[in-house]
Design brief:
- Its cofactor is Mg(2+).
- By secondary structure, this protein is an alpha+beta fold.
- Helix content is 68%, strand content 8%.
- It folds into 2 domains: 219 residues, no CATH class; 154 residues, 2-Layer Sandwich (Alpha-Beta Plaits).
- It is built from 12 helices and 5 strands.
- The protein has a 5-stranded mixed β-sheet, sandwiched between helices.
- The protein is elongated.
- Bound molecules: guanosine-5'-triphosphate (GTP).
- Guanosine-5'-triphosphate binds next to strand 1, helix 9 and helix 10.
């Protein structure tokens, strides 16, 4: 495994930054992100509505009391019967928000409840408003419209749909009961407050999306930092610090499940000569090629490759017996030979070669990973002394 996550994270980082700085996403993200955003948003909005619903309901009760005190006695009963339907809509929306399994339907149920609440307020206003109390009804309708847009927590399109469909429903009902509509005053109240509400919810929706993108960006940056702290800069493999963590984790796991754990230590042959002859930059390039070659044989998700230091590499294979580890060592020697990186000053080959020490063990209580590594390191130097370009299995 090479820590290629960095490439994916860099791409992700670029994508989000671009989106954050573009003005295109105002109220809609690209398809996949929009889907994720909605999922996240609906859950959060439903959770917030559990508190907001109570506040809206209290405001509704306070307003009702205010209206009740100011209305002429002849209108109180009619108004009370009709207006209590608005309260019922708020209440139903709030009750639904208490059930987490309905969160994914937050947009739908709030849209329906708000649309009905506006339609009822609309009809009450048109039918009951007359004389001195008229202004009271219209003020209450404006209040309801602004609440729907600004406080419920719907996205721009849903709130707009709820606001205008509520008005349309109100008009249809008013026509149905054949009651005249005073369009002039209605435009000054309902239409005006609808546009006011739309600009409010537009700004909120946009800001919410911006915060969401910023949150994603922070998460990607945190992940990038984490990967960087685990990565060897030159080769892109895991670094020594990360190796120590993984080795301990895999050792403990293998001990718990009593499964074999194999490790391999790899050292480039005559690398000092290579560096001295071709220079440090060529040496770096050679190490990168070898790292890529080594990463090729660690194909399983549990396989782990790290740069142990200098021109030494470390491979870890969970649940791997000695015989399988030997096969891997043979494959690795082939891979490096196939790379055919010219080595003008090697006394054993025309190209760069490696030596390998390896072993597999089922860790037991009282054994330490550091001793296991030491034995494999000794096997590696045995491979060197036996002529290089080969492997030696350590006796555990
Ligand atoms: N270019 C480059 N060279 C490195 C790096 N890290 C270590 N080296 C060099 O690797 C060489 C290691 O040399 P030695 O440990 O003497 O081993 P060797 O020459 O490979 O000899 P054998 O291991 O016995 O085959 C040294 O010259 C180090 O300077 C690196 O990051 N880049």
């Amino acid at each position: 495994m090479k820590l290629n996550d960095t490439d994916v994270l860099t791409l992700e980082h670029e994508k989000i930054t671009k989106l954050l700085h573009s003005r295109k996403y105002f109220l809609r993200f690209p398809h996949k992100l929009e889907k994720e955003y909605r999922y996240h948003y609906q859950n959060e909005a439903a959770r917030e509505f559990r508190t907001r619903g109570v506040i809206i309901f209290l405001l509704y009760v306070l307003l009702s009391l205010g209206i009740y005190q100011l209305l002429p006695a002849s209108q109180v009963w009619n108004w009370f019967v009709l207006y209590s339907w608005v309260g019922s809509c708020v209440f139903v929306g709030w009750v639904l928000s208490l059930f987490k399994r309905f969160s994914q339907w937050f947009d739908v149920y709030t849209c329906v409840c708000c649309s009905l609440a506006i339609a009822i307020t609309f009809v009450i206003t048109v039918v009951l408003a007359s004389g001195e109390s008229s202004i009271l009804y219209h003020a209450a309708m404006m209040y309801a419209v602004v609440i729907v847009y600004g406080f419920v927590g719907m996205r721009f399109y849903t709130a707009t749909l709820a606001g205008w469909s509520g008005g349309l429903l109100g008009i249809l009902v008013t026509h149905y009961i054949k009651h005249p509509i005073d369009w002039t005053i209605l435009h000054r109240t309902y239409t005006f407050s609808s546009f006011l509400g739309m600009s409010l919810v537009f700004a909120t929706d946009h800001r919410h999306r911006q915060n969401y993108l910023q949150g994603l960006l922070n998460a990607v940056q945190a992940k990038q930092l984490e990967v960087l702290s685990h990565q060897d800069v030159l080769t892109g493999l895991a670094n020594r610090r990360y190796l120590d963590m993984v080795m301990q984790r895999e050792w403990d796991r293998a001990m718990r499940h009593q499964t074999p754990l194999a490790i391999m230590m790899v050292d480039v042959d005559f690398f000092k000569n290579y560096n001295d002859h071709l220079g440090h930059i060529e040496g770096d390039y050679c190490l990168k090629l070898i790292a890529d070659g080594i990463a090729k044989i660690a194909t399983r998700s549990d396989d782990f490759v790290a740069r142990y230091g200098g021109e030494e590499f470390f491979l870890l294979f969970a649940m791997t017996e000695e015989a399988q580890a030997i096969l891997q060592a043979k494959r690795l020697l082939e891979v490096i030979n196939d790379l055919a990186i010219p080595h003008p000053v090697s006394t054993i080959s025309k190209s760069v070669t490696i030596s390998i020490g390896l072993a597999s063990t089922v860790p037991q209580m009282g054994q330490r990973p550091v001793d296991f590594i030491k034995k494999v390191d000794q096997a590696l130097y045995k491979a060197k002394s036996q002529g290089r370009n080969g492997f030696v299995v350590a006796e555990i």
